[in-house]
Amino acid sequence: MKIGVLSLQGAVAEHIRMLEEAGATAVAVKKVEELEDLDGIVLPGGESTTISKLMHKYGFTEALRQFGQAGKPIFGTCAGAILLAKRIHGQDDVHLGLMNVKVERNAFGRQKDSFEVELPIAGVAADYPAVFIRAPYIMEVGETGQVLAKYEEKIVAAREGHYLAAAFHPELTEDARMHKYFVDMVKEYRG
Ligand code: GLN
């Protein structure tokens, strides 16, 4: 099983390390052709508008839409979750628009630019160390989706079929359980 990490911006090496710890073969993806033999992909955090521009420039927008529509699992973390969302609060345009969630960018305010909390995440852990950095939150999850975690009443992790979104950065901890959850999802949807 091979899982890619979109390598346009963000903590790519950290995601690769965690995916391997979770039992997958993981590779950095810089060209659209590299999507072909992947079973799933992670969209890392960073700055969603910047990543989106780079995705357009290198032909990833359409290719990733097809990847998702073909039923291949996609895990968006932080900015990656914004890229996946079908709706973004306060703006008309979206990026990939694949996952039926509505997100709001920079949702935790200035004084909480970055912080870490232990959260229960359904199906993942009772005490997951979640690192938030200028994080978005998920305002709404569509009917076919499932809320996995909340922090201060705000949804911070959700799943819809083969799409997984987290407002935090699971690659910036030593805890591979969130990546393991995604690796299991990829196994489930493979073949
Ligand atoms: N605030 C960023 C955005 O809107 C996301 C932050 C992150 O990925 N750490 O794209």
From TrEMBL:
Belongs to the glutaminase PdxT/SNO family. It catalyses: L-glutamine + H2O = L-glutamate + NH4(+); aldehydo-D-ribose 5-phosphate + D-glyceraldehyde 3-phosphate + L-glutamine = pyridoxal 5'-phosphate + L-glutamate + phosphate + 3 H2O + H(+). The gene is pdxT. InterPro entries: Class_I_gatase-like, PdxT/SNO, PdxT/SNO_CS. The active site is at 78 (nucleophile), 169 (charge relay system), 171 (charge relay system). Keywords: Glutamine amidotransferase, Hydrolase, Lyase, Pyridoxal phosphate. L-glutamine binds at residues 46-48, 105, 133-134. This is Pyridoxal 5'-phosphate synthase subunit PdxT. Its EC number is 4.3.3.6, 3.5.1.2.
